[in-house]
Amino acid sequence: MSSNAVKYPEADGVVPVIEIRALVAGEDAAGFRSFRTLNEEWITRFFTLEARDVETLGDPESLILGKGGQVFMVYADAEAVGCVALIPMNDGVYELSKMAVSPRLRGLGIGRRLIEYAIAQAKAMGVRSLFLGSNTKLANAVHLYESVGFRHVPVASLPPMAYGRADVFMEMPL
Questions:
Q1: Strand, coil or helix: what is 25?
Q2: How many CB atoms sit inside 10 A of residue 102's CB?
C-alpha cells in the first residue's frame, strides 16, 4: 500500500487514494459545505453545537481564511472524509480547531496524517505555537494530540477558549 492510500474497512480491498489540500476562498464551496457537515456530525454526536460553532462553520471563509488561517480537507477518492483548521489568534499563535474524520474511516490513520500535515503547514507559515481545546470524552483524539507533541497546559496559559465543552487544553511550540 502506498503512503497515500488507506483501505476502507467495508470496501473489500479497494484502496482509495488520500489527498490533503487547503480550501481556497471563493473556489471551494463544496469543500466548505463538507467542512461544516463533518464538524456538525462529530459535535452533535458527543455534544451540542455552541454559538461559536454555528458562527465559525457558517462562514469559515471570513472567520478563518479571512483572518489568515487555513482549512485543510482530506479527500478519499474525491470524497471529503476529514478536515482541520488553523485559526490565527495573536503574535504567531494559532488554534488547531475543527478537526474531524468521517466516522466510517476512523482508526485508519487519516487523523494522524491530517494533523501532521497541518503541523507541517503551520511551521511553513511561520506559526510560533499551536493550541487546542478538547474534551476527556474524546480520549482517542486527546491521545493523538499527545502522540504528535501537544502537551497539556492550564487553560489560563492559552488565548480565551470559546467552547464550553473544552476540558482538555494543550499546546505545541513550533
A1: coil
A2: 19
